[in-house]
Design brief:
This protein is an alpha+beta fold. Helices cover about 25% and strands about 20% of the residues.
Length: about 400
């Protein structure tokens, strides 16, 4: 199957929810996940975050079950304007675990009756002392396991247009792509080698080149037909940009995707999220793989090579402008992809004129994690949702345990 075909299948797929209604008796064979559950309303929660946004009001209310040094339990609370928390207070102290849960549940129900909506816990709301996960960072999640499995010890040299060989792999004839001649810091630089024709057995060739990446510093890509024809036009010099973290880039992308008119906001399409970006999703637990070659399957396409230190660096190295309509700078693309490598072992394997595909070795295992990743995807590529399944919740269902992430920009 081509990457274009996979992309269409992913964006048009919807699970058959009629055959397995929520709450049915079908066994759940998913692995356990601390984040499992949808918005937390269907099962006891150790923490609850709610928002009320209407007219000029934009306020939050947060509840957390805490355990004190004497072994008793309590419920901490925080409230105020969204994004401006206060010091944590206590609703009860010295209680049993069951009593603390009753108080949290009753308070949540009261707030829901008052018009609040339950939302995912935001990254910028620090947990109080005694809360589970309070020492792991602002959101209660570990920061991630660090760089992925594909890191080069040197940035390589592109092969000649005639092909040659890399790490014992014979290359066919190809061409060298340069940055389009525009005013900018990378004008005229050669940044990519690409074969002239599609390769037979490209998955096997890709696997051999990826395995040798640490030594060669040349990351292999599978380029679809449209990308092969139009890639030259997609490599254009950009003005330099200020270095920012993935959380800031995605938060700004999320805000830009919001409708400017209050009346146009569709709460159902964003559910179970609200108007605020929920912060970065936690790293998926589990051991790192040794390869992602088995995730490619039967693919077809042209072979591309880019000289980089990590796969995520490709957009920034070639100044790829696939998301031009959203003004997503290539350097920002690289920052986000690096973060996904670190947290999910998600690696760039396919590139087109305006499409991108990642192979994902540690996809989300539970719905809460999938929802937060869906928020990141919407901030990165809104077309995936608004011209795809149409809502955050449905998109989260589609990427749950999915080992490929496909993006396209209209």
């Amino acid at each position: 199957m081509s990457f274009e075909g996979f992309l269409r299948r992913l964006l048009s797929y919807r699970p058959n929810r009629d055959s397995e209604p929520d709450g049915g008796d079908e066994p759940d064979d998913r692995e356990p996940d601390d984040d499992d559950g949808d918005d937390g309303a269907a099962q006891p929660s150790e923490r609850v975050y709610l928002e009320f946004v209407e007219g000029s009001s934009a306020k939050f209310y947060a509840l957390v079950i805490v355990r004190d040094d004497d072994g008793t339990w309590g419920v901490a609370f925080n409230f105020g304007r969204i994004g401006y928390p206060r010091e944590w207070g206590r609703k009860i102290t010295g209680a049993s675990r069951a009593k603390a849960q009753d108080v949290l549940d009753a308070t949540r129900d009261e707030k829901l009756r008052g018009g609040y909506g339950e939302r995912l816990w935001p990254d910028d709301l620090t947990l109080p002392q005694g809360a589970p996960g309070s020492t792991s960072g602002a959101s209660g999640h570990d920061s991630g396991p660090g760089p992925g499995i594909y890191v080069a010890t040197t940035i390589g040299l592109l092969p000649p247009a005639s092909g040659g060989s890399v790490a014992g792999v014979s290359l066919p004839a190809g061409r060298l792509l340069t940055i389009e001649a525009m005013t900018g810091p990378a004008d005229g630089r050669t940044v990519m080698w690409m074969s002239n024709q599609p390769l037979d057995g490209i998955a096997q060739t890709w696997a051999r080149l990826a395995e040798a990446f640490a030594q060669t510093g040349l990351w292999p890509l599978i380029v679809d037909d449209e990308g092969s024809a139009a890639m030259d036009e997609r490599l254009s010099s950009y003005a330099l940009t200020t270095s920012r973290g993935a959380a800031q880039i995605l938060s700004e992308g999320w805000d830009e995707s919001m409708p400017s008119d209050e009346e146009e906001f569709d709460a159902d399409a964003y559910a179970p999220l609200g108007k605020r970006f929920p912060g970065l999703a936690p790293a998926t637990p589990g051991e790192r793989p040794t390869t992602i070659a088995h995730l490619l399957g039967e693919v077809t396409g042209y072979l591309g090579l880019v000289a980089v230190e990590r796969p995520a660096d490709v957009p920034g190295a070639i100044w790829w402008q696939g998301p031009a309509n959203y003004d997503l700078h290539p350097a920002d693309q690289t920052t986000i992809l690096r973060s996904w490598e670190d947290r999910f072992d998600a690696y760039l394997v396919g590139l087109g004129a305006d499409t991108m595909e990642l192979a994902v070795a540690r996809p989300p295992l539970g719905r809460a994690s999938a929802v937060r990743i869906a928020a990141e995807h919407m901030a990165f590529c809104p077309d995936n949702i608004w011209q795809g399944v149409g809502s955050v919740r449905e998109y989260a269902d589609d990427i749950l345990r999915a080992e490929q992430w496909a993006f396209w920009w209209d």
